[in-house]
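Appendix B. One record, verbatim.
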Amino acid sequence: MAFGRSLRESVGSFELTHAGALSALERMSILVVVAGVILVDIFGIFMADGPGIVPSLLSIATTSIFALYLWSPWFATASLVVVFVLTIVVEGGSPAIFAASIAAGMVMRLGRTALILSYVGAFLVATAIAAFGNANAPVDIGIYLIVATMSGAIGFALRIALDKGRRLESELAEQAEREHEAVLAERRWIAGELHDSIAHQLTVVALHAQMLDDAEKRPASQEAIRAAVKSAMTDLRFVIELADDGPRASAAHIGDLDAAIEEAREEIASAGHDVLCEGDPQDERISRSAEIILARIMRESATNILKHAGPGGVRIRLDVGEDWIALLVSSPLPDVPRRDLPSSHTGLSRMAERVLGATGEFTAGAVDGRWEVAVRLPTATPDQSPVMS
């Protein structure tokens, strides 16, 4: 983790953690510079007026240490200390101090807090040792300190820039992931809306299409198919409008519990079931958000009844209390499971998702030979946008 982030996480403390590996450009630049300086030192060995073999070898060793920073800042710094001691013995320490001044940039770029503080302390001690016994040291030491400061500042700036670049890459990756998730969520929502809005009407069409061969039932079935197709077109237009930045003209047709119960009653009755409706769907204590959820539950329950119910009566009961609203839809189970109408097997999960999302209770299952869907919602159901209902 880089310095910019660690400052936010440490309260009132100076904490530098690992800054990450050098970039490819940084590695290439260091290797090119190190190789160039080493070549100069090698040529100096063979020149008549060169510094000599031992100083040249020490210079080569000192320069080579910079390449070690590509792998281990601690090991490179420790090696620099060893070469510094040898240089003091041989030449008085000035070349090594200059190298240490340049190395300050590498330490600031790569080191942790412990290494940086240790390096600063060792550098100051080294310059003091080099200054002792050298009359011209005050001027030289000042130059070394300036070089070390500039090198350290460059290393620190590279560290900050690299950290910002990595954080930007991470933020862009996270943003791309969020956008991907948003697209998937929108696709799932559209699929769910199509299921809730269109599957019911297609079930009605499929059911009444089987009755067209019956001369007595044909007129009623034709009218039911016509009404179902018209309603499906309205619902499809509504879903398209929702997907296109929100509902417009057709937004008012959703969430009408009274209309949903009446529509379900007519459709179920046309399929040959006696329907008993209890309760007042226009009770003023039913909140708008609860009405939207219950209307969707009613429509999905009617779809399942048309697909799967056996012969017998259907009961729809709505109870409204001071703190809760309960809806019970009970239908007879078939003696033999029906295979003629397709099923996506997603209706129950969609109903449960809606109810549980509003902190309600949902159960569905066989009870004494009947299939019961029971919903219980608090009267203070959090408001839900029609788009997400």
